[in-house]
Specification:
Layout lengths: L23 E6 L14 H8 L6 E2 L4 E2 L5 E6 L7 H17 L3 E6 L5 H11 L4 E5 L19 H9 L4 E6 L4 H10 L2 E4 L3 H7 L7 E7 L21 H13 L3 E8 L10 H17 L2
Parallel strand pairs: 1-4, 1-5, 5-10, 6-7, 6-9, 7-8, 9-10
Antiparallel strand pairs: 2-3
Helix pairs in contact: 1-8, 2-3, 3-4, 7-8
């Protein structure tokens, strides 16, 4: 795999042209092969990059500029259309190489199943890993209609890999009764409906630990993010999500990787969701890459 040039010509604003000199790698995972409702998130990473041109390079929240962080935009990983398992293998192999090179991986989805191979890769390097999961949906099913490779299963897979007590979910407002029962039985942390306040209570518990942060854009209320595959009423505001990212950034956590998933441009007529996602990516770059 070559890192001397991006997979695609479109790059996020202020990305660094050289992989070797970069601290972090931004990459797209254009997969939506297993979604159960509306497809289209495979086009999310490209649109997030395209609208980033409208961003300010400076974050008034963190008092940092993008030029202060050297990050390389590798473009979208070329994935075999319709082949879920091979796509997941390709993602894991890619992130393995990023981590071996000592870079911070920051992914853009794609459906939420793409987080699973990234977590597998990160866990190989950080066996004491914890996960902060911010989402509308529990994603704790073992399968969807008999299919274990589903966008409704990645957090269950991650919990079974690293131990459910090492997974912390926030903003959850949808899921099967069995999902919530399982989480309670095994001691997994789930904060329903809200994110910022319960997150503030958990951050001291995770101080010093390696943490992977995965954010599904549908944690936002549809009024703030209509462009996603599975909209769900009753969500948080973009202001609350930004504040939560900033609290993670200012905490004593050792954030070792992150992703933002489920942006689906075809349902985003005003480009509100893509622009919000682009700003969130900027804040994650400036906040998580030390």
């Amino acid at each position: 795999m070559r890192f001397d040039e991006a997979y695609s010509g479109n790059v996020f604003i202020k990305s660094h042209p050289n992989f070797e000199e970069s601290q972090a790698v931004l990459y797209g995972m254009p997969m939506d092969w297993t979604v159960s409702y509306r497809p289209g998130s495979r086009f999310g990473p490209t649109r997030i990059r395209e609208v980033s041109i409208g961003l300010e390079e400076y974050s008034a929240y963190l008092d940092r500029e993008l030029e202060e962080v050297k990050y390389f935009d590798a473009g979208d990983i070329p994935l075999p259309f319709g082949n879920a398992q091979k796509s997941l293998d390709e993602i894991e192999n890619f992130v393995d190489k990023v981590l071996t090179a000592g870079k911070f991986p920051l992914g853009m989805g794609g459906e939420h199943l793409v987080s699973w191979p990234v977590i597998k890769s990160v866990y190989k390097r950080y066996p004491n890993l914890a996960i902060i999961h911010i989402d509308a949906h529990a994603d704790l099913r073992t399968d969807y209609e008999g299919e274990p490779l589903s966008h409704s299963t990645p957090i269950r897979k991650a919990a079974e890999l690293i131990g459910p007590k090492n997974v912390y979910s926030f903003g959850i407002r949808s899921g099967m009764k069995e999902e919530f029962q399982w989480a309670k039985e095994v001691g997994m942390h789930i904060s329903k409906f809200d994110v910022h306040k319960p997150l503030m209570e958990i951050l001291p518990v995770l101080a010093g630990r390696p943490v992977y942060v995965t954010i599904d854009i549908d944690v936002l209320d549809p009024a703030h993010a209509p462009g996603t595959g599975t909209v769900d009423a009753g969500g948080i505001t973009s202001r609350e999500l930004l504040a939560s990212i900033h609290e993670i950034a200012r905490s004593d956590l050792n954030v070792v990787g992150a992703d933002l998933v489920e942006v689906a441009p075809i349902y985003d007529a005003s480009e509100q969701t893509a622009n919000t996602a682009s700003k969130l990516i900027r804040e994650m770059i400036l906040g998580f890459v030390k």
